[in-house]
Amino acid sequence: MTAPDNESVMVLTENAARKLRALRAEEGNDALKLRVYITGGGCAGFSYGFKFDEAVNDGDTTVMRDDVTMVVDALSVQYLAGSTVDYVEGLQGARFIIENPNASSTCGCGSSFSV
């Protein structure tokens, strides 16, 4: 499934898109996409994960912002629908974060959640 626009399933902020462009340029590979996923574990039950991927697999949802693409697998998208992916720089360092309206609680560092 491909989202018709970036507001349909998830939102990729301009800050996140800007950082993705910079990281792609550093890698010298414009085909790289940001894969966002969840795994079991973490102090709150599920953990968020981010990695670069060139592939879009069957069942993946894609979210585009201008010339960058975020990819979410079918299992993860059910927990991440309606979320916003942003990139922030602050006291805890620079990192991608997810604002997830489906999370009933999160851990202090923001990298894990429960539903």
- Sheet bearing the most strands, described? 6 strands, mixed
What quaternary form is this? single chain
Shape: globular
Number of strands: 9
In percent, how helical is the residue content? 10-25%
Order of helices and strands: EHEEEEHEEEE
Strand content: 35-45%
Total of helices: 2
Enumerate the spans where pLDDT stays under 50 for 5 or more consecutive residues: 1-7
Overall residue-averaged pLDDT value: 84
Compute the gyration radius: what is it?
14 Å
Strand order of the largest sheet: 4-5-2-3-9-8
Class from secondary-structure proportions: alpha+beta
Note the gap between the termini.
Answer: 24 Å
Description of the molecule:
The protein has 115 residues and is of the alpha+beta class. It is built from two helices and nine strands, in the order βαββββαββββ. It has helices at residues 14-27, 74-80, and strands at 11-12, 33-40, 46-53, 61-65, 68-72, 84-90, 93-99, 105-106, 112-114. The strands form two sheets. The chain has a six-stranded mixed beta sheet with strand order 4-5-2-3-9-8. The chain has a three-stranded mixed beta sheet with strand order 1-6-7. A hairpin with a 2-residue loop joins strand 4 and strand 5. The protein is globular, with a radius of gyration of 14 Å. The protein starts with 10 loop residues before the first strand and ends with a strand. Residues 1-7 have low confidence and may be disordered.
Give a topology summary:
Elements: E1 11-12, H1 14-27, E2 33-40, E3 46-53, E4 61-65, E5 68-72, H2 74-80, E6 84-90, E7 93-99, E8 105-106, E9 112-114
Parallel strand pairs: 1-6, 2-5
Antiparallel strand pairs: 2-3, 3-9, 4-5, 6-7, 8-9
